[in-house]
Specification:
By secondary structure, the chain is mostly beta strands. It has one domain: 3-methyladenine DNA Glycosylase, Chain A. Helices cover 11% and strands 30% of the residues. Strands 1, 2, 5, 6, 7, 8, 9 and 10 form an eight-stranded antiparallel β-sheet that branches. A two-stranded antiparallel ribbon has the order 3-4. The longest helix is centred in the middle third of the chain and has 8 residues. The chain is globular. The chain binds a DNA duplex through strand 5, strand 6 and helix 3.
Length: 202
DNA sequence: AGCTCGATGTCT
DNA sequence: GACATCGAGCTA
């Protein structure tokens, strides 16, 4: 795999623009010599404004807290949080310092380290169930709270351009499981690759 | 210190 | 459709 890592300036745009741009790129978790990687097929943008409405679906909506601290950093850091006491979700912070925007990685297609992913997920053979959800992909790629607040320009967790990028059709929809967000539930900020079997829901 | 709940996944 | 499981965030 030729590494063509996204540099810091690739993360300075708004989450709503970077979320679709991440589709088709590879998310890489390097553990020592082991490479676990997945092709990003589904994302959601959080934070910022849509039609002059602030995003009440964002963790950062009510301001800076200890959990959401990395969301307020400049683009190019990881924000990993624990959900329901059992799973983790991985976000890529975007924008400028103080913007509090991030892109949730909701699904990937396994690319590298298949055996390791199967083991991490407790699954016996390659199937879409391996990485078709934000908690599942973190488990497969061995991403947990230890990977919170990592510099994506470092050498452990990062995004690369695949050298044989396929042409994709992008679909968009409202985001999953944010009914609590009075305004944000209507923002069309979920993006996914049309027809890809690893997308979490259609 | 106590209480509530969640950007989910798994099993029934 | 029930429920596991735990840290953050809020109230006091």
């Amino acid at each position: 795999m030729i590494e063509d890592k996204w540099p810091q300036h690739a993360y300075t745009a708004a989450a709503r623009d970077i979320a679709p741009a991440l589709l088709g790129r590879y998310l890489v978790h390097k553990i020592g010599e082991k490479i676990l990687a997945g092709r990003i097929v589904e994302t959601e943008a959080y934070g910022g404004m849509y039609r002059r409405q602030p995003d009440d679906g964002s963790h950062a909506f009510r301001g800076l807290t200890s959990r959401t601290e990395p969301m307020f950093w400049a683009g190019g850091w990881s924000y990993v949080y624990l959900i329901y006491g059992r799973y983790c979700c991985m976000n890529i912070v975007t924008g400028s310092k103080g913007d509090a925007q991030a892109v949730l990685i909701r699904a990937v297609e396994p690319v590298s380290g298949l055996d390791e992913m199967l083991k991490n997920r407790g699954v016996s053979s390659l199937c879409k169930n391996l990485t078709n959800g934000p908690g599942k992909l973190c488990q497969a790629l061995n991403i947990d709270l230890r990977q919170n607040k990592l510099d994506l320009c470092g050498d452990e967790l990062y995004v690369i351009e695949p050298n044989n990028a396929r042409r994709i059709c992008t679909c968009r929809s409202t985001r999953i499981n944010i009914d609590y967000a009075v305004k944000g539930k209507y923002f069309p900020w979920r993006f996914y690759i049309k027809g890809n079997p690893y997308v979490s829901r259609f």
